[in-house]
Design goal:
Blueprint (H helix, E strand, L loop, with lengths): L2 E6 L4 E8 L5 H6 L5 E8 L14 E3 L5 H4 L32 H28 L9 H27 L4 H4 L5 E3 L25 H12 L7 H5 L2 H16 L32 E9 L2 E8 L5 H14 L4 E11 L2 E3 L3 H12 L1 H12 L6 E10 L2 E9 L6 H18 L4 E4 L12 H6 L2 E10 L1 H6 L5 H18 L5 E2 L3 H12 L6 H4 L2 E8 L4 E11 L11 H9 L12 H26 L3 H8 L6 H4 L2
Parallel strand pairs: 14-15
Antiparallel strand pairs: 1-2, 1-5, 2-3, 4-5, 6-7, 8-11, 8-13, 9-11, 9-12, 10-11, 13-16, 15-16
Helix pairs in contact: 3-4, 6-8, 9-19, 11-12, 15-19, 16-19
This protein binds adenosine-5'-diphosphate.
The site of adenosine-5'-diphosphate has 18 residues, from α12.
């Protein structure tokens, strides 16, 4: 039975091939309890080794707990998790990295220097003793030799000494030193999460007190969720939580950044128990010429081709004189479910709520929730003894879910006086309908309902979109209309509205889950101007966006809103920013539809996706 162990230190990589050795070092003994004979050691001392391709054999990662790292508080955030992966170069910068020579050459020079000057000094020492010259009287060459000796000694000690010494001291820690194991033994087939000894110290942990808190979180005596309130420092809370998580799971979080984010800005609003943040690239499409204004549209996505394609659509729209968007409706909804003892009693409430004479009184109660909330309508639906009440209200520049929920609660409290037998089952009864595909949103609308159109000239269809008007019209009919009907689609009569909606939502801090109903869209195409030009439209009944509240106030998202000129609350007319954002979303979808449909009709789709949407990198190198 043979086993390969890679022992990776910040300075060098040592590979042990072990074939049954009785006299193996303790670290190997722990790993290979049954091994007995030979150890061959190969040291790779070259600097700048390319990352090794991963082995198909299982890899178990262990943490680095060397004492020199214990006190190292200046590591980069990416090295916070102290697990070293042998496939990556060491994340800890070394002084030797600054040297212009390859490592083996540098080592050779310092070795030679050390022995030469040592020999020279010993020789001089003997001479002085023979000639009775005082030892402290040194010549210039001796002084230089002493300096060289010290320098080379420090270098060699730093290179070989520390790790060597550490393999003997701190025996309880030795097996936790950073190494990776490539083991061809079957039973090690999967790296199992395990509770790590709470030894490593995070880069950002600066004191013994922090270390104690990490240990308490790992042991469970301090709940992870309470760190922010306990420490009064959101950044530190995230760092400690992250370190505790790494120790508990044994999984490194090297690629997840910690630094560069304002953790105060999400407290109590956007995300609980943060441990870092995910980076999503933001591309730019435009200018989108819409209602006479030009907009550069930020799109956060990891799908290759998407931004490029939307950009091409924007170009076609621009060259054809722009697009027009009309806001048809603006109202957020919430529908509680209430239950009565009989269907008749449920019907009484339905009639009461739908009676126009009662609307004003209900509005006054509802509108108390916010100066921006204005009740627009109440629509009821009955299922036996249960009543679903769909309230619709305007919400200013907020997307409005909180606002409308507060208003609904006010009304339910008010109704309880006249209908004491009403049992409130839930503030949301799914007739709203939030974050689920539903016919009610498709038919009635939710949030902003927008229609957007443009006439694309024959010339632009040919030169920019590389297709023809009849080909586009036919494809739209057979794909977006007939094909979606055959599929039994609900609001999915389009090519890829969700792509554009999601990308703009993420960039501008909208709720990405509301992409579901916000992407409801029917794309229509027909020839106009004697069949020369193309009329294209997108009708989107449920675009749910806001420019205040939620994720819109975060720095990156706020910058993207600012780029569109819709950041925050509109001063002139409350709600104007959110409404403009909804029309921009629809305009961008129009551009996206135009470009993708053209790519499909001209047979370019697969080709361009192979070029821009497929990684040429060797995936086996990336997979772990
Ligand atoms: P949502 O209802 O979308 O979840 P929030 O309730 O979190 O949003 O945010 C709306 C908050 O912003 C409310 O407190 C509201 O009073 C405030 N606000 C300030 N200006 C505006 C505006 N122009 N439109 C809507 N809300 C605004």
């Amino acid at each position: 039975m043979s086993n390969i162990i890679r022992f990776t230190t910040p300075r060098h990589r040592i590979q042990f091939t072990c074939i049954n050795s009785p006299s193996k070092p303790p670290i190997i003994r722990r790993l290979l309890p049954t091994a007995t004979t030979t150890i061959t050691i190969s040291m790779d001392l070259r600097r700048g080794l390319p990352p090794k391709p991963p082995s198909t054999t299982p890899i178990i990662r262990h943490r680095k707990t060397t004492s020199n790292n214990k006190n190292n508080n200046n590591r980069s955030p990416s090295s916070t998790g102290t697990v070293i992966d042998h496939r990556s170069p060491s994340p800890i910068p070394k002084a030797s990295d600054a040297l212009p020579l390859p490592l083996y050459l540098t080592n050779g020079i310092f070795f030679t220097l050390f022995f030469c000057v040592a020999y020279f000094l010993l020789h001089r020492w003997r001479e002085k003793i023979r000639s009775s010259t005082p030892l402290h009287v040194v010549t210039l060459s001796e002084l230089a030799a002493i300096v060289s000796l010290i320098a080379s000694f420090i270098y060699l000690l730093g290179f070989f000494g520390i790790d060597f010494v550490q393999s003997f001291i701190g025996t309880s820690r030795v097996d936790e030193d950073n190494f990776t194991l490539e083991d061809d033994v079957e039973h090690h087939s999967k790296p199992k999460p395990r509770i790590m000894d709470p030894l490593p110290t995070a880069a950002t942990l600066t004191s013994k007190k922090d270390e104690d808190i990490v240990k308490s979180v790992v042991s469970g005596s301090i709940p992870s969720y309470s760190l922010e309130s306990k420490l009064g420092d959101c950044r530190k809370a995230a760092s400690i939580r992250r370190e505790a998580l790494e120790r508990k799971t044994g999984r490194p979080l090297l690629g997840l950044p910690l630094e560069g984010f304002d953790y105060n800005s999400i407290l109590g609003q956007c995300c609980e128990m943060p441990i870092g943040y995910v980076q999503v690239p933001v591309g730019i499409a435009g200018p989108l010429l819409l209602n006479g204004g030009e907009y550069m549209v930020p799109m956060a996505t990891t799908e290759g081709c998407l931004v490029a394609s939307t950009n091409r659509g924007c170009k076609a729209i621009f060259a054809s004189g722009g697009a027009t968007a009309i806001l048809l409706k603006d109202g957020m909804t919430r529908a509680p479910v209430v239950r009565f003892g009989s269907a008749a009693r449920a019907s009484h409430l339905k009639f009461f709520l739908e009676d126009t004479l009662n609307f004003d009184a209900l509005s006054i109660v509802f509108n108390k929730s916010s100066r921006f909330a204005r009740l627009q309508s109440i629509k009821c639906s009955i299922a036996g003894k249960n009543l679903y009440i769909r309230f619709t209200c305007s919400t200013g520049d907020a997307m409005g879910m909180n606002m409308v929920s507060k208003g609904v609660q006010n009304v339910l409290d008010f109704l309880q006086i006249d209908f004491p037998d009403m049992e409130v089952i839930g503030i949301s009864g799914n007739f709203c309908s939030d974050k689920k595909p539903s016919a009610v949103n498709w038919i009635e609308g939710r949030g902003k309902s927008v229609v957007c159109e443009s006439v694309i000239t024959a010339d632009v269809v040919k030169k920019v979109l590389k297709t023809t008007v009849p080909a586009l019209v036919e494809l739209n009919m057979l794909k977006n209309l007939t094909g979606s009907a055959i599929a039994g689609s609900l609001g999915g009569f389009n090519a890829h509205a969700a792509n554009i909606v999601s990308a703009v939502f993420i960039a501008t801090g909208q709720d990405p889950a509301q992409n579901i109903e916000s992407s409801h869209c029917i794309t229509m195409m027909e020839p106009v101007n004697s069949g020369k030009d193309l009329h294209i439209s997108v009708t989107m009944p449920s675009i749910e966006v806001g420019t205040v509240g939620g994720g819109t106030q975060l720095a990156s998202q706020s910058a993207c809103l600012n780029l569109l000129g819709v950041k925050g609350a509109s001063k002139e007319s409350p709600g104007a920013n959110a409404r403009l954002l909804a029309t921009i979303v629809a305009g961008s979808v129009l551009a996206g539809e135009l470009s993708l449909m053209s790519a499909i009709s001209s047979g370019q789709l697969v080709k361009s996706h192979m070029k821009y949407n497929r990684s040429n990198r060797d995936m086996t190198v990336i997979s772990s």
